[in-house]
Design goal:
about 30% helix; binds glycyl-adenosine-5'-phosphate
C-alpha cells in the first residue's frame, strides 16, 4: 500500500487534502490523473447500467434531504458503530474491531491489552454528519449529509415510476458523494469520511427477488473482471445472519484482495420491501406498483448492488501496480485496462529539433479529439516513457526523423514493450481498435 500511496502522490493521482495546513485526517484530493481515472471508472459503471441495458434509468438526488428520510430509513436509530474511549491515551476505537487497532501508547498492543489501558464501556455512535439549514440554529433546522445515495432513489421512486413509464423489473442508478463520520477511517482511500458511491436500486416483483439477487451477483463480478481486475483477486462473501444490515434479508460482498487482505469492494443486498414500506408509512404516499393490465398492486422488492467509486479506484490501482525492467532499467508501470487509463496515448517527439516537435504536435492534434491524449517533449525519451508507464498510458507514439520523410511513427505498447511502425493517417483508427478490444491483465496470478 505504501508504494501505491507514494505513486499516487508523486504523479498527482491522489494526495492528502488541505496539505498546506497539515492535512485533515483521512481526507484526500484527486489530482489530474486521479480525476480522469475515477471518471473513467464511473463512466464504465454508467455505461454498463444505462447504455448496455434498457431497464435502468438515471437519477441525481440532492445530498441534503428532509431529516424525516433518515428517521424512516432507520439511519437515525440504527446507523451506528459501537465506540469505546481510552481514558489513558484519549483515543477512540471501534469496540467491535479492537484487534485491528493499535493502542495509543503502545502500538505493538491492541487497545485494552496494555496494563495502563482504561477503556470505557462501549456506546453506540451515529455515523451521520449533522448540520443546520439556514443562518439560525434552531429546532427544525437540523439536516444530515447523506450516508448513502440509496435513500434519494427510494424517496423519488414514485416520480421516477411515473415519468419513466417503467414497470418492475427496472432499476434506478445514481452516482454521488456520501458521508460517514467513521470512527476508524484509514488505509488510504479504502475508508474515508467523504466518498463516492455508485448505487443501483433494482425494483422487482417480490417472487422474483431471489433470482435477481443471484443475477446481480454474477453481473457485478463480470463487470470487475471485464475491466481487468484479476479473477483470483476477486471473490464473493456471503454475510452470515448476524452481520446483515437492519434492512437486508441477504447480502454478499464482492471482495478484493487488497494489500490489507480480502476486503469489501461492493455490497449486493436483497433489501426486500423494507425501504419503500418505511417511506410509504412515514410520508403517507403510496409507494407501490399498480399493473393496469392485470389489476395487480404490490410493493416491489429491491436488489441493491452498491459500489464505492473511490474503493474501486484503489482496487484498480492496486491491481495495476507492477515493477519490471524496460531497456535494461527498472520501471514502475500501471497495467490499467486501456479503457480506464487516464491517458490513452502519449505523443513524444524523439528530439526537440529538426521539425519533430511540429510534426508531433500535428499528430497530437489529430488524436486529442478522439481520445484523451498527452503531448510531452521534455527530457530524454527513456524518461518520458517511464513517466507515461507510471501513469498507465497504454500507448506511446514516437515521432522520429524517419517520420518527417515517410509520415510513419513508432507505436509502443506499455505492457509488451513491442514497437511497430505505423502510418500517421492510420494511427487514430488503430488506437481506437486497440481500445475497443478485450483486455486482460498480463500480471501473473497470485
Ligand atoms: N446503500 C448500501 C450501502 O451504502 P455499504 O456496504 O455501507 O452499503 C457500499 O456501502 C459501498 O460503499 C462499500 O462497498 C464501499 O465500496 C463504499 N464505502 C462504504 N463506506 C465507505 C467509506 N467509509 N470509505 C470509502 N468507501 C466506502
Amino acid at each position: 500500500m505504501d508504494k501505491i500511496v507514494a505513486l499516487c502522490k508523486r504523479r498527482g493521482f491522489i494526495f492528502p487534502s488541505s496539505e498546506i495546513y497539515g492535512g485533515l485526517g483521512s481526507t484526500y484530493d484527486y489530482g489530474h490523473y486521479g480525476v480522469l481515472l475515477k471518471g473513467n471508472i464511473k463512466a464504465a459503471w454508467w455505461r454498463s447500467m444505462l447504455q448496455e441495458r434498457d431497464d435502468v434509468i438515471a437519477l441525481d438526488a440532492a445530498i441534503l434531504m428532509a431529516p424525516a428520510v433518515w428517521e424512516a430509513s432507520g439511519h437515525l436509530s440504527s446507523f451506528t458503530d459501537p465506540l469505546v474511549d481510552c481514558r489513558t491515551c484519549k483515543q477512540r476505537f471501534r469496540a467491535d474491531d479492537l484487534e485491528s487497532a493499535a493502542c495509543g501508547r503502545k502500538p505493538s498492543k491492541h487497545p485494552g491489552e496494555a496494563e495502563d489501558c482504561d477503556l470505557t464501556e462501549a456506546r453506540e455512535f451515529n455515523l451521520m454528519f449533522q448540520t443546520t439549514l439556514g443562518p439560525v440554529k434552531e429546532a427544525g433546522s437540523v439536516a444530515y449529509l447523506r450516508p448513502e445515495t440509496a435513500q434519494g432513489i427510494f424517496v423519488d421512486f414514485k416520480t421516477a415510476l411515473q415519468t419513466s413509464r417503467r414497470k418492475p423489473p427496472f432499476g434506478i442508478a445514481q452516482v454521488g458523494k456520501a458521508f460517514r463520520n467513521e470512527i476508524t477511517p484509514g488505509n488510504f482511500t479504502f475508508r474515508t469520511r467523504e466518498f463516492e458511491q455508485m448505487e443501483l436500486e433494482f425494483f422487482v416483483p417480490p417472487e422474483e427477488a431471489p433470482q435477481w439477487f443471484e443475477y446481480w451477483l454474477s453481473e457485478r463480478m463480470r463487470w470487475y473482471c471485464e475491466l481487468g481486475l484479476r479473477e483470483d483477486h476477486l471473490r464473493l462473501r456471503e454475510h452470515p445472519a448476524d452481520e446483515l444490515s437492519h434492512y437486508s434479508s441477504a447480502t454478499s460482498d464482492v471482495e478484493y484482495l487488497f494489500p490489507i487482505g480480502w476486503s469489501e469492494l461492493e455490497g449486493i443486498a436483497n433489501r426486500g420491501d423494507f425501504d419503500l414500506r418505511q417511506h410509504a408509512e412515514h410520508s403517507g404516499e403510496k409507494l407501490e406498483y399498480f399493473d393496469q393490465a392485470t389489476g395487480e398492486r404490490y410493493v416491489p422488492h429491491v436488489i441493491e448492488p452498491s459500489a464505492g467509486a473511490d474503493r474501486a479506484t484503489l482496487a484498480f490501482l492496486v491491481d495495476a501496480y507492477d515493477e519490471d525492467e524496460a531497456a535494461g532499467e527498472p520501471r514502475t508501470v500501471l497495467r490499467l485496462h486501456p479503457r480506464l487509463a487516464p491517458m490513452k496515448v502519449a505523443v513524444l517527439p524523439l528530439v526537440r529539433k529538426d521539425g519533430l516537435p511540429e510534426l508531433a504536435r500535428e499528430v497530437y492534434d489529430g488524436l486529442r479529439g478522439r481520445m484523451q491524449s498527452d503531448y510531452d517533449e521534455g527530457g530524454s525519451i527513456g524518461r518520458r516513457y517511464r513517466r507515461q508507464d507510471e501513469i498507465g498510458t497504454p500507448y506511446g507514439v514516437t515521432v522520429d526523423h524517419q517520420s518527417t520523410q515517410d509520415r510513419t511513427v513508432t507505436l509502443r505498447d506499455r505492457d509488451s514493450l513491442e514497437q511497430e511502425r505505423i502510418a500517421i493517417e492510420e494511427l487514430g483508427d488503430e488506437l481506437q481498435r486497440r481500445l475497443d478490444a478485450d483486455w486482460s491483465s498480463p500480471k501473473p496470478p497470485a
